[in-house]
Amino acid sequence: MAKLADFNTRDRAEEGVKLDLLLPDGSPSGEWVQVRSYRSTIAQKARYEVERQRAEKGDKITFEEGQALEAKGRAALVKAWSFDDACTPDNVTAWLLSAELVSQAVIVAATQDERFFGKPSTDS
What we know:
By secondary structure, the protein is an alpha+beta fold. It is built from 6 helices and 3 strands. The protein has one domain (11-21, 29-113). Helix content is 50%, strand content 15%. Strands 1-2-3 form a 3-stranded antiparallel β-sheet, covered by helices on one side. A hairpin with a 5-residue loop joins strand 1 and strand 2.
């Protein structure tokens, strides 16, 4: 019989999963990032903040400001990385702004529930 705790997804969402990074030409880089699920509390708070700031600016937001906000939200998905540079929100944000293929791979990984929770049942 299952217990209530068996349904906890928050902890697994926060733990994250390792994502091996490829160079733009598709070859292995030897580097990795640990990606949180988009369901994690940290990621949800970051998404909320991005949407709040976007709403504040309204139609006055520039393309560059929008891109920076999106990168800031995506940075919350990165929990750790293998690079020598410190894995800080500012460093991750700056990197994701210039590494669009990585940014997209992070989003894809973060939204694949099976990476974090296993194969769902047909009823879940």
